Amino acid sequence: MTRVSTSSSKVTLPRTGRPAFKRRGNISRTNTALAFVTLVVALGYVFLINDVSTKGYEIQSLRRSGSVVNEELAKAKRQADSDQSMGSIADRLHEHTFVPEGSVEYAHPGSPVALGVRTE
Q: Is the pTM of this model over 0.85?
């Protein structure tokens, strides 16, 4: 069994007389590695949060523009419905130079026009 002497403030090994625990300055390699990992994780977290918030803003902007497009579409549908109504068509006929026709003569199957025969 190995004995460790504790007579002084430093803990030493019995056979070699060397200190049991070496101190390597104020900051050990483990502490440095943990600080580095913590820094990398923190920076990654900041970039991730920034990316997520930017995406949220873009989604909100797209929703707003989508609602504007939907409103314009509804307005266009209402305009198309009103333009296709009979009252609107009758009103627009008076704006143009259309003349009502009293009697219409149609081509008969035996006529030269209907057969496509040239008469000279």
A: no
Positive/negative CA dihedral, 85, 86, 91, 95: positive
Locate the domains of the chain by residue range: 42-84
Q: How do residues 46-60 score in pLDDT, each as one tens digit?
A: 999 999 999 988 998
Write the pLDDT tens digit of every residue in 1-16. 555 555 545 666 677 7
Query: Residue with structure tokens 């496509």?
Result: 116
CB count, 10 Å around CB of 12?
16
Question: What is the three-class DSSP state of 5?
Answer: strand
CB atoms under 10 Å from CB of 50, counted, come to 10
Report the SS3 class of residue 82: helix
Q: Kindly tell me the number of DSSP H helices and DSSP E strands found in the chain.
A: 3, 0
CA distance 4 to 21: 12
- Rounded-to-integer distance, Cα 42 and Cα 36, Å: 10
